[in-house]
Design a protein that fits this description.
Layout lengths: L1 H27 L24 E6 L5 H9 L2 E7 L11 E6 H11 L1 H4 L4 E5 L10 E12 L6 E8 L5 E11 L11 E2 L9 E3 L2 E3 L11 E2 L13 E8 L3 E7 L7 E4 L8 E3 L10 E2 L6 E9 H7 L1
Length: 306
């Protein structure tokens, strides 16, 4: 009887110990990561044809002379930082990338679009080797071009893991100019006449004359339209912002933001709060800041100025 009771106590203790270990394992278990974010339907996605792997080799020495030597042999001195605060002592790696590859990407995408796109960066011992020392997803943070020749001088990358929140200057893509009520650009050539050229700063407004005997339609950004007193003359789009800064999850950085001008009339504007983006993106500027506005002068204003 005593032996049976002792065996029962030992069995209960073992069950208790097993339960305690299971509870401890449950406590020590890593919390479940949230599912990765994805692009939503109707929003711009990165073009897969530019999903290129940037090849790089490590560098051990920095400095002006070393950088100049790198450029002479067709390489661009570059740096990879650890997310946003890498410049303050993060996981920094000196690398060099191929000049031709970076120049090709910048020429095809444009500077703003290059700086808002993720790339896979493969670091190897040399460019001829297939060995990969490190492979990491990066976002180009800074691109330094020569002022006279636009040659790529250096590139700064930051690591972009899935959990990262990155500040990105997302470029704007304007559409709907051809149907915008405030940007009617069609002018019948037979109704055009020679007028003076008016210049305000770098903006030139030109009157039109008939180029030949055909009744063609001339399209341009600014034109003179002969109509009633309240019709607009020389309406044009005043682009105030080319990019807008957002705090973006790394997995859904938009290649650009669509700006629809199809219903914009003269005198109306689009502000940052009007832009349609993924709900996970956080605007880092005031939502009331203007992005663009349709400008123009009226016939009555032209006559008053005379």
């Amino acid at each position: 009887m005593l032996i049976h009771r002792h065996r029962q106590i030992l069995t209960n203790a073992l069950h208790l110990r097993h339960f305690s270990q299971s509870a401890a394992a449950a406590v020590l278990q890593d919390p479940l990561e949230p599912p990765p974010l994805t692009y939503l339907e109707g929003f711009p996605r990165p073009d897969p044809k530019f999903a290129e792997i940037i090849r790089a080799i490590p560098r051990t020495i920095s400095g002006k002379n070393i950088s100049a030597k790198e450029r002479k042999v067709g390489r661009v001195p570059s740096i990879v930082f650890e997310q946003e605060d890498g410049q303050h002592g993060g996981n920094k790696r000196l690398i060099s990338v191929k000049t031709n590859q970076i120049r090709k990407l910048v020429n095809h995408l444009g500077r703003s679009f290059f700086l808002s796109r993720l790339f896979d960066l493969e670091v190897g011992p040399d460019f001829e080797s297939n060995e990969v020392i490190e492979k990491v997803r990066v976002l180009p943070r800074k691109l330094h071009l020569h002022a006279g020749t636009d040659a790529v001088l250096n590139v700064t990358f930051i690591r972009a893991p899935s959990h990262a929140l990155l500040k990105v200057d997302v470029p704007l893509g304007f559409r709907g100019e051809d149907v915008s009520p405030g940007l009617k650009k069609a002018v019948a050539m037979q109704h055009c006449e020679v007028v003076k050229q008016y210049k305000w700063g770098s903006l030139l407004s030109i009157g039109f004359t008939r180029a030949d005997a055909k009744n063609e339609i001339l399209r341009c950004q600014r034109c003179w339209k002969h109509s009633s007193r309240e019709e607009l003359l020389g309406a044009y789009l005043n682009t105030i912002k080319r990019t807008v800064k957002y705090l973006c999850p790394a997995d859904i950085i938009p290649p650009y933001i669509d700006v629809d001008l199809s219903e914009l009339d003269a005198g109306q504007k689009i502000v940052m709060g009007d832009l349609k983006v993924h709900p996970a993106l956080k605007l880092l500027r005031s939502k009331d800041e203007p992005v663009c506005k349709i400008m123009g002068t009226r016939v009555s204003d032209q006559r008053k100025s005379k």
